[in-house]
Structure formats: structure tokens, C-alpha cells
Specification:
The protein is mostly helical. It has 34 helices and no strands.
Length: 504
């Protein structure tokens, strides 16, 4: 096997136009299992294939990339670091993006290996070339470079090299190319910041985190939009959130929400700010965030009532997010008339309009009504029941009508609401008092798609798994539901064909 690959490599090196020979080598490599490939190629010199990358023939370069991709993946990162580091470094400045991605992918493998990464850390020129690849025109090249540097930053030596050496200057030079590339570097910094408080400290001391925060209040509204998204990602870690609070960034973002009504461009960045506070609330404390930054909570309600679909969508998503926790439900309940007005609006949005908003509204309603069995205290059950009844004079009929419309996503959204209330005693009582509801649940023909069948199966399971099922639904209905569960979500009733004498 190794001999045949060696003879093909020798043949490739001896011909002027090696396309046909490269095709043969590619075919031969594909016929060898990846587990056996390492032994077949580890002793070979691949210089001839790397040298053929320097060609104006696109077909030749692509064949070489395919061949190297398969061979190099079979070799260990340490073997690559010792034997092909220079060739891979050369690939970073190649004019073909596929070659750059090949090189960056293999370098990414090396930086993950404790022994091979030393070779990378000792080669500043290679690291400079990786950083410069963040500025590549093709996004897939930049992404691969960011990924390699992110992996490198998962160790102290990597952090030291990237943020406490001349490489930081290179990073800042790349940032200066244009706005798009600057934000690619921010993406790397935010990712590295999330690893640990120590890595976050490196990023802060580099000055790049503070530079990102300054962008929040810059003159360019589109840059502020992107900055808000980045800062939201920064807040995913506890140490990130604590830093933002200490720096007064939370107050600054809250003030931006307050001033949104007088800013004609606020519709660009407002959704990002609301998403930011929504995420912080769900990770820390809905009550603390809503009480400390009341402008955020008020804006969420305003968004749901807004005529702009983009604002409505963000408002619905954030409201649903807040309502997933018991604490969030209690915070919303304290708003009194505001939550009532919003629930009526959500009911209207669910019943008519663009399908996407209808689906998002149904999902938010489901999140607001959800209670785990251990959360089902008398007070909380009364709260969810009162919210459900605010949706409509006949909320069961309203949700049922939505479930019968010829849009699978609406059907599933409506079933999800039924599933949410199916575990709560008041929900079961409503179902039992609604004529024909149990027949609807057990009728498989009402759910046609796989997702719909799965959703109906979940509804049946939720009804049956409730501790109050037998008492409220009755033993006969429970038996029918158990049969449905036993048969599975995709059961099809066999229909007997009756032959008639003399029929064609």
C-alpha cells in the first residue's frame, strides 16, 4: 500500500502535467481506510504535493488540497509540527482560499496538542500569519483563523503570547484595516474572555474589551448595533457581567433604552439592548434586573404593543424568556394592568397576521404558562390559570382553532400550549369540560407531519404523567391515553380491504 503511494508520488514528480497522476493518487487514498492511512503515508515525503500548490491551474491546486487534506488528517499533530510546519505556514499566504483553510485547519489541530503547540508558540512569524488571516476577504478563512487563535488562548502560554507580546500590536494593526475586520477581532476577544476570569483579565488588560465598550456610544449607529450584540455575548459569563456592572455599562445601556424615544435611529440598536438585559435577567435574577433597570421591563411591554413586526418579535421572545422562571412570572404579575394588556395583545398576534409572529407569540404564551410539577403551588397555579383566561373569552376554543389551521408550525405551537397546561390540574379540568377535546387529543388524523405527531405524543404524555390525571380525566380516558402512548407517535390503524364479487 505504502509502495503504491510512493510510486505515484515519484510519477507525479517526474511529469510536466500531473493532473492525471494526481487524480490516481486521490482515488488510491480514498480507497484506503483512514485507520490504515497513517501507516501508509507517514514515511512519505509530501514536498512534491506541496510544491504543486504553486500553480496557476485551479484544478491542480484543488486536487492537491484534496490529497493533502486526507493525508494530513491521518498524521499526528506532532508529526505535522516536526515535518510540515514551514509548508503550512506558506499555505497561509497562498492566493487560493482552499489552501489557506487547509493550513489553518491543520494548525488548529496542532495548537490543541500539548506537545505540538510548543512549536507554534515558538514561531512568531507563523502566529503573525494566523492573525493576519483574520483580515482575509473570505469569511471562512477568517473564521478558521479565529478558531485556531481561540484554541491557542486556552492555555497560559497561549494567552501570554497573544496578549503580552508583540503579537498584540499585530492584532491591533489587523483591527485597523476596517470596521468588519475590527469586529472579527472583537469576536475572538469575547470568545477568549468567556473561558475563565483569568483569560478575561488578559483581554481587559490588552485594552480591547474597553475599546469594544466605547463603541457602544459611537457615532455610527450600525457599529453600535454590532457592539450591543458583542457585549451581550460578553455578559454570558458571570465574570463578564460583574465587570460590565462595575464599569457602569449596564447603566449606560439602560440610559440608551430610556433615550430611544428621541433617537430616530434607535430601532437599529434597541432590539440588541433588550436582548442583552433579557439574557442577563435569566442568568442572574429577573427581579433584580427589572427592579434595577425598569426602563428595560417597560420597553419589553412597549415592544409587544408596537406596530413594528421587528420590535414585536424581540418583545415576545424577551417576555417568554422572562416568564420561563417562577421569579420572572412573579415579576411580570406585579405589573398588574401591563401584563394583562400584553396577554390580550399576544392572543391577537397568535390569531392573525404573519405566520412567524404567530408562532413566536404561541411560544411565548407557552413559556409564560409553564410550571414544573414541583412549582405547582396554589398561588402559582392560580396565576397561570388567570393568565390563560385573559387570552380570550374562550381560550380553549381559540387555541383549538389555531391548531386546525393548515400550517404545521401553528398546529405544533397550539399543541405546545395544550401540553403546557396539561400537567396543571386547572388545565385538565378545562380540557374535560371542553366538548370533544379528548376525542381531538386521541384522533391521530389531526396531526399529519412528523413534528405534529411528536407534539401530539408529548401532549398525551403530559396528560398521563400528571399526578391528578386519574382523578380529573377518569380511568377510562387514562386507559385510552395509555394505549396511545404504548402504540407510539407514528402508529397507523390498519384498514381492511373488502373484496366484492365481480368487481374490476
Amino acid at each position: 500500500m505504502a509502495a503504491s503511494i510512493e510510486s505515484l508520488l515519484t510519477e507525479i514528480a517526474s511529469v510536466q502535467d500531473p493532473i492525471e497522476e494526481l487524480q490516481s493518487l486521490k482515488t488510491a487514498l480514498l480507497s484506503i481506510p483512514i485507520s490504515a492511512l497513517r501507516d501508509a503515508v507517514s514515511g512519505q515525503r509530501l514536498d512534491v504535493i506541496f510544491s504543486l500548490l504553486n500553480s496557476n491551474s485551479r484544478e491542480q491546486v484543488e486536487l492537491c488540497v484534496d490529497i493533502l487534506e486526507r493525508i494530513l488528517m491521518a498524521l499526528s499533530p506532532v508529526h505535522l509540527a516536526h515535518n510540515y510546519r514551514a509548508e503550512l505556514q506558506g499555505g497561509l499566504t497562498h492566493n487560493n482560499d482552499a489552501v489557506k483553510i487547509l493550513a489553518l485547519t491543520q494548525i488548529g489541530r496542532m495548537v490543541e496538542n500539548p506537545e505540538a503547540v510548543t512549536e507554534i508558540l515558538n514561531n512568531s512569524d507563523l502566529l503573525c500569519a494566523i492573525i493576519q488571516s483574520i483580515g482575509a476577504e473570505k469569511m471562512s478563512v477568517a473564521k478558521q483563523a479565529i478558531q485556531s487563535l481561540s484554541k491557542l488562548s486556552q492555555s497560559k502560554p497561549g494567552l501570554d503570547k497573544l496578549f503580552q507580546s508583540d503579537l498584540l500590536k499585530t492584532l491591533k494593526e489587523v483591527m485597523a484595516i476596517d470596521d468588519l475586520i475590527r469586529y472579527r477581532v472583537y469576536e475572538l476577544v469575547v470568545e477568549v474572555s468567556s473561558f475563565s476570569p483569568i483569560s478575561f483579565g488578559y483581554c481587559v488588560n490588552s485594552g480591547l474589551v474597553l475599546q469594544l465598550l466605547d463603541e457602544l456610544t459611537g457615532d455610527d449607529v450600525l457599529i453600535r448595533v454590532t457592539a450591543a450584540e458583542m457585549v451581550t455575548n460578553l455578559a454570558h459569563s458571570q465574570h463578564g457581567r460583574q465587570f460590565l456592572a462595575r464599569q457602569g455599562i449596564m447603566d449606560k445601556m439602560s440610559n440608551m433604552i430610556k433615550g430611544a424615544d428621541t433617537d430616530p435611529f434607535s430601532s437599529f440598536y434597541l432590539p440588541g439592548l433588550v436582548k442583552f438585559f433579557g439574557n442577563v435577567a435569566i442568568m442572574d435574577s429577573p427581579q433584580q434586573v427589572c427592579e434595577t433597570y425598569p426602563a428595560f421591563q417597560n420597553k419589553v411591554f412597549e415592544m409587544v404593543l408596537d406596530p413594528d413586526p421587528a420590535m414585536i418579535g424581540v418583545g415576545l421572545d424577551t417576555l417568554g424568556l422572562l416568564g420561563t422562571s417562577v421569579e420572572g412570572k412573579q415579576v411580570l404579575q406585579k405589573t398588574g394592568e401591563k401584563i394583562k394588556a400584553v396577554l390580550v395583545r399576544m392572543s391577537q398576534l397568535s390569531g392573525a397576521g404573519a405566520t412567524e409572529l404567530r408562532v413566536r407569540s404561541l411560544e411565548a404564551i407557552s413559556q409564560l404558562l409553564a410550571l414544573e410539577p414541583e412549582q405547582q403551588t396554589e398561588d402559582l397555579l392560580a396565576l397561570t390559570e388567570s393568565w390563560f383566561k385573559l387570552l380570550s373569552k374562550e381560550p380553549m376554543d381559540m387555541i383549538h382553532k389555531i391548531s386546525t389551521q393548515p400550517f404545521p408550525e401553528l398546529h405544533c405551537g397550539a399543541l405546545c400550549i395544550f401540553t403546557t397546561i396539561a400537567s396543571q390540574p386547572w388545565g385538565q379540568k378545562l380540557m374535560m369540560s371542553t366538548p370533544g377535546f379528548m376525542e381531538f387529543v386521541l384522533d391521530r388524523s389531526t396531526s399529519q407531519t412528523k413534528d405534529a405527531k411528536d407534539a401530539k405524543f408529548e401532549l398525551v404524555g403530559a396528560l398521563l404523567n400528571s399526578s391528578s390525571a386519574t382523578e380529573i380525566l377518569g380511568s377510562q380516558n387514562c386507559l385510552r391515553l395509555k394505549t396511545y402512548l404504548r402504540e407510539g407517535p407514528y402508529y397507523v390503524t390498519a384498514v381492511a380491504a373488502v373484496g366484492t364479487e365481480g368487481a374490476n
